[in-house]
Amino acid sequence: MNKLELISALKNEANISKSEAAKVVQIFFDSMADAMSKGERVEIRGLCSFFVKKYKSYVGRNPKTGDKVIISPKKLPFFKSGKELKDRVDS
Q1: Among 7, 19, 53, 55, which has the highest number of CB atoms less than 10 A from its own CB?
Q2: What is the tally of structural domains in the chain?
Q3: pTM of the entire structure?
Q4: How far is residue 44 from each of residues 1, 4, 9, 50, 75, measured CA to CA in Å?
Q5: Of 69, 40, 44, whose CA–CA distance to 57 is shortest?
Q6: Residue 19 bridge partners (DSSP)
């Protein structure tokens, strides 16, 4: 399911216009992204959680040349599914 399909499903289920559904979906995604950019965890009980994982700087290697490369610290978003979602997918 992509964003347009999600908007369409919301439009049909909530009986609202496509533009209203698109606005709701955009507000939802923007709110999640804003929270994560502040380092907050986003949790939707029973479905999933999103969080930011911090990595320290480390020395890596260029696979082509074998030279040492310093990898700068970074933050990456992560997704973890909830138990109910795991059970629903597995059945």
Answers
A1: 7
A2: 1
A3: 0.76
A4: 18, 21, 19, 9, 21
A5: 69
A6: none
